[in-house]
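Here is one chain, start to finish.
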Amino acid sequence: MTARFDTLGDFLDHGFDAVIDVRSPSEYAEDHIPGAISLPVLDDAERARVGTIYTQQSPFLARKVGAALVFRNAAAHVEGAAHGP
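Its structure:
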């Protein structure tokens, strides 16, 4: 489901059960929507590793490594940290 919010007020009144922020912990710490749940798909070290691969080796390889990490980490959130009421 895609939602469009024209103002910050509209976003904050989104009506969803939760807002999940999937950015790295340092990105989340820098700024996030109040009340957002942090479930990062890359930790800070993984993000740095993928960025280094991108600049020093190959954008394709970085995307491949990054995708594998994202899928693995997202699955771990679904299996463990992300739980219902």
